[in-house]
User: Fold this.
Amino acid sequence: MAVKQFKTESKRLLDLMANSIYTNTDIFLRELISNASDALDKRHYLSLTDESIPDEKPYIRIGIDKKNRIITIADNGIGMNKEELENNLGTIAKSGSSDFKEALEKGEEVDIIGQFGVGFYSAFMVAKKIEVLTRKPNEEKAYSWVSESEEGYEIKTASKEEAGTLITLTLKDNTKEKKYDKYLDKDEVRSLIKRYSDYIRYPILMNVDVVKPSDKEGHTETVEEEQTVNSMIPLWKKTKKDIKDEDYDNFYQSRYYDYVKPLKTIHYKVEGNTSYTALLFIPGSRPYNYFTNDYKAGLSLYSRGVFIKDEAKELISDHFRFVRGIVDSDDLNLNISREILQQDHQMAALRKSIDKKVRSTLVNMLEKEREDYEKFFDQFGVQLKYGAYDNFGEHKDELIDLLLFKSTYEDKYVTLKEYVSRMKEDQKEIYYAGGESLEAIKKLPQMEKVLDKGYEVLYFTDSVDEFMTTILREYDGKAFKSIQKGELDLDTEEEKNEIREKEETSKDLLEKIKDVLKDDVSEVRLSKRLVSYPVCLVSDENLSFEMERVLKDLNQNGIRASRILEINPDHPIFLALQKAFEDKKDISDYAKVLYDQALLIAGLPIEDPEDFSRRLSDLLLKAMN
Ligand code: ADP
Assistant:
């Protein structure tokens, strides 16, 4: 019988596949096992209504013949007749869909295999010869389909005792890039099955080496024994009442190599438009590489127990990228192949549903398991803040109530809701102060008066905090207000009038100081927020010194917050300064020292430390003489 040609598209694809060194060749095993599983499904299904098809105990069997470089995949499923062989394996079966043809026509070759997966044809990545021996349960004749190249295939009648399909792959010779030998290694093959096909519903049988006692003296011997290598039922498909906490923890810890147990396990099932089961975990510790490119975010995707892909980022929003776990969907339209996920709308629907579940779980933890939630927030809170900030606040409404900040109330975490609920009657804004640490912020000169007046202040210690407020702007109608920026309105009308008068009388002095400091400061004014400190530096409402620092760390060096020098009108220093000015003394040195002092307190570098220390020594000398 003459060799038949593959259809043109198939040929192109086979050509690509046989010669591609870019693709993960391991997937061939998953594809063939998956086909076998489908064939078993079909047989069982037909046996229910068709008496000519007896139902047998289903199996998939993997065989390895090292000597002849052969790996076999056998099943006792539905098998194929001659016509089916021709139709199914002679063309890119169902994969000949328009998407695939289009990609081929566009010449997007490199990625074709990765994107589309290729079912049965993936065997050509690893085999130089493929033989399919197959018989249907209700037919006598068996057929063999053999192909030794992309050129074509041959179909012959054959005999086969047991119904089903036996696929025999003769592996390619090793090349520099690829060692096909690995598919002759029992342990390797077994681990591929574990990895990709563990949850196939039928037993995948394989001869494995087992060590057994060989005599009574404790000697052992290694014998081959057929074992089922897949677990068949995925943990997430079991009913919840049959699963112990320990099972979840073990599953999580062995799968994600985490020595810490998950803080929260979310196992649920959704039925409806997009039916799926998910088993998700919120880790108890932040992976050491979490904030680097090495961290692999995303969930593992399965379709009816068949592994599709790891790290599917499209299944969960970036602000929840700390969540790990798997999603098993019944409805994914994967007819092109198991590797293609072009079905954006399906994925988007899944993501929406998963995001919602994760969010409601966190809300619930916050309300009912505060201690755990705070532990979670210590590890991943910054991620939520970035999430609220990213994309101009696209997700801020979902996230804002999940945020925690430490506050002056008890130096503990508070939510914005809690903050607002105990705001003082006359308080219009949500006060915050930025700095390196709680300790540093507590010592800010600007803190005294706010606290004296009984207001609560949020500590902003993460670099993202203040940037985030530029996006959030307000919570529950209350604007965020930095106590280190702009004007701070803490005074009574009476106090305000008093200040206004003082400003009038010290106008010339303030102008003189501004003159001395020139462009170092944008303004010199009397302070309404100081108690015991003589001076402080504030910025205008736009950029704070904290933000300037963050931008500098990001190499945005040119961006500078404006510097406004505020002087405490009730401080003895100011009164002395006023006196000196009235006595027509030169106050330049005093002004400069006060400014440098304000810089230091604000945590900003002084521009000329030598100048500063010389001036300080002069003043000390004068004072001591
Ligand atoms: P897909 O599985 O996406 O349809 P494949 O190229 O993997 O595409 O397989 C093509 C067809 O060949 C299958 O749809 C099935 O009808 C048939 N087939 C493949 N493997 C087997 C098998 N082990 N037993 C019976 N039929 C099979």
